[in-house]
Specification:
Number of strands: 22
Number of helices: 33
Helix content: 40-55%
Distance between the termini: 71 Å
Length: 954
């Protein structure tokens, strides 16, 4: 089976019904191992040459060449360029190699074992353990419960190449596979021809094993679990209702699917409103429907709540579903949801010819894997427009009858310490069921929703100056209130307009005494309602106007950003007007909610080993600067809500200091009057507020250490995790700043590629490596240098972490001394060029580049000139980048030699007291049971005394 359809990008997929549920006990994890080996070696390629070839054509490993194994399928995915037919043909041949020519030798397996093991270790964190526990509980009684795709450690470490090879040959068959090609093809028939050419050469076995179906049993009695996870970053409740997989075959099925979607939207809107009440039962709660496995679908309601609050959260969640069963949704609630969905459907229809390849890909994936229909945009839009207005509140409300605790219901709590018991959960269920039987649950009380966002329309401003920058296709306006507007009209997406506004000055300008209060300003203002309405009210106002609420516009300190459709531009601009004209004042109830959520978040972070590690790393790299210091519980006592609100109000008081960039499908004839009315109509204060010159701004207060620091951060862990961050200071000189910034980007990609080649492909000891650059702490001065750092991050086996740091340092030093190879440089250039070309077709890319031009230190009033200088700098770096220039840049930008100044911070599990004591014992005594027993007894006794002292001495 294959399909080829046009799209802005080219994506190739190979789907295989080889899956983890097919594994025998001694094969647990083998399906995933095979997926790894595919990129390692095939009949035609060896030593990860597939990865090198794909990267050489701009297909970045991980982002653009990847694979995934689930309980029910394995999918290989490649993003490749289509401008050269031979590259497309070669990429399709790679998929064909995966289908039947993966090489599974003993050496291949040993090389990849470490990477697979590291991926497994990464899954054994708090989140992974919680997900596994829930999966096992849901799938209890079926083979799925014991066949998680990641496998088990014993098999990963010891499985033989013969066992892996047998699994591969048994289950990888062409009749169990599909190829999907989605891209901007000039001739789809030629793509089909390439697929036939490369896959037609492969032979399918005459008598393959039958397709196996593994049922998941349903149950009338509830299943309960109280999962205690000491590293959990949140207390949570999950309620799952198991159902057979939904099949979409008829128009009635499609109507049912729409009704189900309306039900979930309406229920989630109630959950959101409850999370904003005074006695909030949870911080967040949402319901969704999900296909968990081939035979199983589930409604899953999940919430995060305060510590010791799981029973309260569970009761509220069950009560709300019961409330719908008893009283239903109101017509008002459903009309809001209907308007919201219709807006989403109309947007999708308008952009049907500009759809991202992933949307088309997913439709074909679902067709092959779940026998879902391929409906087509035109017909689906017709169905939506016809059916949606006919679905009543009663029809939607009936879906609550599928969420009964007597129908295959699984209830699970997650807590850092055990507070709730299974009997407690059962009592909550019985109590809510009794209330429902007695019909003692009152109907939902809807809030009154104002019709208009802006009640009194402002007087329009005027255009004082107008500039055209034809080189980048933008128009710049200076309004009568001083606000600067820059807009670019595009046709990338018919239903998208993006905008961002910024002004100089922010937290870096504050004295340390005011920092904590003002840091909380956006959070407190958001809870109160920075647009003049509480979040719950604004959500319904936007939905009734057929605008998606919540994420349309966000404000943070001295900036705001948003996204809307052209038809919703007036609503979006009204929100900006409200942002500048609303004075938020602290209310005790809102502040209490913010503080409670923040306190819970801080406590959760203190339990998380990775947060402890990140905080210590920042402390070492940035000199314990208050700007990078994590907030602690006692810091909350220093927060002044009144000061926070005053600061927030000042941030959006003076429009003359703001520059607003708008990019998207804009019609100036209709957009400009709206801009003049709502942005030009913002009054300018009589006295300037935050009117700061760029040269007067402050750098963030931090200093990278001038010496070598190697430190192990030990944290209590349930299962051993290890994470490494290796950091180097960076200083870019002002004279060649534009080129230097572009150069750092290329160098970081070269470093990342080389470290992956060495640490993963050569030594086989990591899963992935990431190189990141931080240059954000500098004021946009026209004269100063830029300070920052480059960090290398990877996870690994704790026992070899220090040696891997040494290997990484050696590799970086080698690059500084000898330079990268021609292949390394050309790969970095190709990956960057492909990303650049794709970005030129995206509104977000243009928005970011125009903003960068305004915020650049070379900007002196001409955004077109600044844009051109930055672009020319990129081209000069591309033209000059070669092994020799890269070598010189690595010596200049990083400390040279790199080993003379760096920090290496390693997260490691905390040693147990007994383990450390045993390791200190001479070997001759370690096998003496009596000695060990005596030591164990003394250790327990000593720990008891220590614990007692902790409780009695305060």
């Amino acid at each position: 089976m294959f399909a080829a359809i046009p799209s802005p990008e080219c994506e190739l997929l190979l789907l295989s019904l080889s899956k983890s549920v097919l594994e025998e006990e001694d094969e647990r994890g083998v399906a995933h191992i095979v997926e790894h080996l595919a990129f390692s070696a095939t009949k035609k390629y060896t030593n990860h040459d597939i990865v090198k070839f794909l990267e050489s054509i701009g297909t970045e490993f991980g982002a653009c060449q990847n694979a995934s194994t689930s309980a029910d399928e394995t999918v290989y995915e490649l993003f490749v360029p289509v401008d050269k037919p031979d590259l497309l043909s070669q990429s399709i041949s790679v998929l064909a190699e995966f289908s039947s020519e993966i090489r599974v030798s003993k050496d291949d397996l040993e090389k990849e074992r470490g990477a697979v093991m590291e991926e497994y270790r990464g899954s054994r964190n708090a989140s992974g353990r919680m997900q596994e526990a829930h999966w096992v509980l849901m799938m209890e009684g079926s083979k799925y419960a014991e066949r998680l795709p990641i496998g088990i450690e014993k098999v990963i470490r010891t499985v033989s190449s013969e066992t892996v090879k047998q699994f591969y040959h048994k289950w990888y068959h062409l009749h169990n596979m599909a190829v999907i090609a989605v891209g901007d093809f000039s001739d789809t028939e030629s793509v089909v021809g390439l697929i036939k050419t490369h896959f037609g050469q492969k032979n399918s076995v005459p008598d393959p094993p039958p397709k196996l179906i593994f049922p998941v049993p349903f149950h009338e009695e509830q299943r309960f679990s109280c999962f205690v996870e000491s590293e959990a970053t949140v207390s949570a409740v999950m309620i799952s209702y198991k159902l057979p997989v939904f099949e979409l075959k008829t128009v009635k099925d499609y109507r049912d699917m729409l009704a189900e979607s309306m039900f979930l939207h309406a229920l989630n809107r109630r959950f959101f409103k409850l999370s904003r009440t005074k006695d909030l039962p949870y911080f967040s709660c949402s319901a969704d429907a999900e296909d968990l496995a081939f035979p199983l679908r589930a409604y899953i309601i999940s919430s995060s709540c305060k510590e010791k609050g799981t029973l309260e959260a569970l009761e509220s969640m069950l009560l709300e579903v019961a409330r719908v069963r008893l009283n239903g949704f109101s017509e008002g609630e459903i009309s809001v949801v209907r308007a919201l969905l219709m807006s989403q459907f109309e947007s999708a229809y308008l952009e049907r010819d500009q759809m991202q390849s992933t949307s088309l890909r997913d439709e074909y994936l679902h067709h092959f894997l779940r026998n879902g229909p391929v409906i087509g945009n035109e017909y689906e839009a017709q169905l939506q427009k016809t059916i949606l207005p006919c679905i009543s509140a009663l029809e939607v409300s009936k879906y609550s009858e599928k969420l009964l605790t007597s129908c295959s219901c699984v209830i699970k709590t997650i807590e850092p310490r055990a507070y709730a018991s299974v009997n407690d959960l059962k009592d909550v269920v019985l109590r809510v069921n009794s209330l429902e039987e007695e019909r003692s649950i009152s109907p939902w009380d809807d809030e009154i929703i104002p019709e208009e966002i802006v009640t009194t329309k402002p007087k329009s401003g005027d255009i004082v100056q107008q500039h055209e920058y034809s080189n980048i296709g933008v128009t710049e306006l200076i309004l009568s209130n001083g606000m600067k507007i820059c807009y670019k009209c595009t046709d990338f997406l018919d239903d998208q307009v993006l905008f961002t506004g910024f002004s100089y000055g922010g937290l870096s300008e504050l004295p340390e005494s005011e920092y904590l209060s003002c840091l909380m300003a956006s959070t407190i203002a958001g809870e109160i309602g920075e647009f003049g309405y509480r979040p719950t009210v604004l959500m319904d106002m936007l939905a009734s106007k057929r605008v998606e609420g919540g994420t349309e516009i966000e404000a943070y300190m001295r900036s705001f950003s948003g996204c809307c459709s052209p038809s919703d531009l007036e609503t979006a601009l009204q929100l900006v007007y409200q942002l500048f004209t609303t004075n938020v004042t602290p209310r005790g109830e809102d502040v209490q909610i913010v503080m409670q959520k923040t306190e819970e978040a801080i406590r959760a972070q203190e339990r998380d080993p990775y947060t402890v590690f990140a905080n210590r790393t920042k402390e070492l790299n940035y000199g314990n600067s208050y700007f990078f210091r994590p907030m602690r519980i006692n810091d909350l006592l220093k927060v002044d809500p009144l000061k926070a609100c005053e600061y927030f109000n000042c941030c959006f008081k003076d429009p003359s200091t703001f520059t607003v960039v708008v990019v998207g499908n804009i019609d100036p004839i209709t957009a400009l009057p709206l801009i003049l009315q709502y942005l030009g109509g913002i009054s300018k204060p009589s006295t300037p507020v935050f009117d700061l010159d760029r040269e007067d701004l402050k750098d963030l207060p931090f200093t990278f250490p001038r010496r070598i620091i190697r430190e192990v951060v030990r944290s209590p862990m349930v299962e051993a995790q290890c994470y490494v961050q290796l950091s180097f200071p960076v200083e870019l000189k002002n004279g060649t700043m534009v080129e230097e910034i572009h150069g750092v980007g290329f160098l970081s990609k070269i470093l990342e590629t080389k470290l992956m080649q060495v640490l993963r492909f050569k030594h086989g000891q990591i899963y992935s490596a990431n190189v990141s650059v931080y240059l954000e702490g500098n004021k946009p001065s026209r004269t100063g240098d830029i300070r920052g750092d480059i960090s290398i991050n990877f996870s690994c086996d704790p026992d070899i972490s220090s040696s891997l740091v040494d290997i990484a340092l050696e590799e970086i030093l080698l690059l500084q001394q000898e330079g990268p190879s021609d292949e390394d440089v050309s790969t970095a250039l190709e990956i960057e060029q492909r990303a650049h070309e794709n970005g030129l077709q995206e509104n977000y890319h243009w928005l970011e580049r125009i903003l960068l031009s305004y915020q650049s230190r070379i900007y002196t009033g001409d955004v077109g000139a600044a844009f051109e200088v930055i672009d020319e700098g990129r081209l000069r770096v591309r033209k000059s980048l070669a092994p020799l220039t890269a070598k010189s840049a690595l010596q200049r930008i990083l400390p040279y030699p790199c080993k003379k100044q760096y920090t290496a911070v390693i997260l490691m599990p905390q040693r147990s007291r007994l383990g450390a004591l045993v390791k200190s014992i001479p070997t001759i005594y370690r096998n003496n049971a009596k000695v060990l027993a005596a030591i164990a007894g003394l250790t327990v006794f000593g720990f008891s005394l220590w614990k007692h002292s902790r409780h009695t001495v305060k």
